[in-house]
Amino acid sequence: MNLRKQGNKAIRWYLKQRYKGIRRFMIHPYQTQKQWFTHLLNASKHTEWGRKHSYKSIKTLEDYRNAFPVQDYKDLFPFIDRMMHGEKDVLWSGQVKWFSKSSGTTTGRSKYIPVTTENLKTCHIKGSWDTMAIIYNNLPNALQFEKKSLIMGGSLDTFDQYPKTLVGDISSIIIQYMPAIGRQYYTPDIKTALIPDWEKKIEAIAHQLSQELDVVMIGGVPTWSIVLLERILEITGKSNMLEVWPDFQVYTHGGVSFEPYKNRFRELFPSDDINYVEIYNASEGFLGIQHDWDQDDMLLLLDNGIFYEFIPKVDWNSKNPETIGLKDVELGEEYALVISTNAGLWRYRISDTVMFTSRLPYKIKITGRVSQFINVFGEEVIVANSDEALSKTCQILGAQVNDYTVGPIYFSKNIKPGHQWLIEFRIPPSDLVLFEKILDKNLRLINSDYDAKRTNDMALQNLTINRLPENTFQNWLRSKGKFGGQNKVPRLSNNREFIEEILAFRENVFY
Q1: What does the pLDDT look like over 25-41, one tens digit per residue?
Q2: Which of 19, 327, 395, 447 has the smallest CB count inside 10 Å?
Q3: Separation CA 242–CA 468 (nearest Å)
Q4: 127: part of which helix (H) or strand (E)?
Q5: Domain made up of 1-371: CATH architecture
Q6: Is 12 left (phi over 0), alpha (psi -120 to 50) or beta?
Q7: What is the pLDDT of residues 306-322, one digit of tens each?
């Protein structure tokens, strides 16, 4: 134990030095981004993409924007597909071995995002070290390098058409190639962590961690973390997780809003000393970390192999959107993210939308995805609105939610338009009609456009809720081959595709 304490003390000093790097880009954001802009172009000017777009002649951001338009996945897929088959020097120098499989929110076709060696080291792993540096800066008694931590990860598989290529979600790649210094503080063993069957993985990890008494940190998507923690309580017979892990300190989360799950975590860890830290580690890059734990925004990581551009909301649906740079963003406005990375993603629109809460340092909140909103009737409801309204309503009525999705109700002869919510409750409200009314009221308070459409029920009726049986969403995801890992239920949709599909699935399975 003394050796572990000494090691923790040494790593604390090391992380203090790393934190100085975070402070540098907080103070000098434009210089840091300019350096990455120059490095990315120089490192790729001899690739096929770099030659095609004359990277040698690009000197300014204006030159870069004029060289080619903003790219979507479908634009880069032909190049990525060739890279997956072993071709070198296509979007990035050399041969790319790893591809992060991003299934997103149940869309039929998975995306495969290249993860180069440089990208793995200077973006994803560096982002993990940045996270630890921020934790140790905020937490005087941090024990992450004295005890054990868990990251909920997926699995790695070979690409059938070219077995030298490995595919898996980004967490599995990070776990597989975790630095040796970190492995002795990680649980469970790597073999268990990378079990491909998600249900078997959960069961195996639960049994291992029910015997592991010195876990102080876990990280993962809230929905699956809760499943694991509740299984550990079943195995141990304990009433809360602090009876299993008395020294627990930090839960890092991302992928979906934490708001709907906050109350359940407070029951699982009944202490005001537990810290909940949001991170933004997408398949495309490690983009943000909650820096000030008293605030609910994240520090935008400007020194992690990524160059940023931003699409103003007015241009989201344009085929060739205009972008602005970091200097031109405004607080309180929503932007779609465009990134160029050392994984060979060039002017790539990742569909996430953010709002800036601070400049110098630059901090953001994730507000949703370009494809996830409801604006059929001019109400402009985004995921941040629905998450906040649902969280507030649950607090008022003592309910808890496992998952939810929302879609429009279209106008017809006998039906007024509105919003239909499908909710799977962990703890249902005693009065669902009252829950509907309060949820609608909270959404009106949060979103003035929705409130205007709801005035006197003229344009929209009060929202309606369909309560789903337990495990409906998990079983629906499983039926689509999207179970486990980073697969997520779409929160909002501007059409009824997901609503109708889930309702039909429920009828077929349960009735």
Answers
A1: 999 999 999 999 999 99
A2: 327
A3: 31
A4: helix 126-138
A5: 3-Layer(aba) Sandwich (3.40)
A6: alpha
A7: 999 999 999 998 889 99
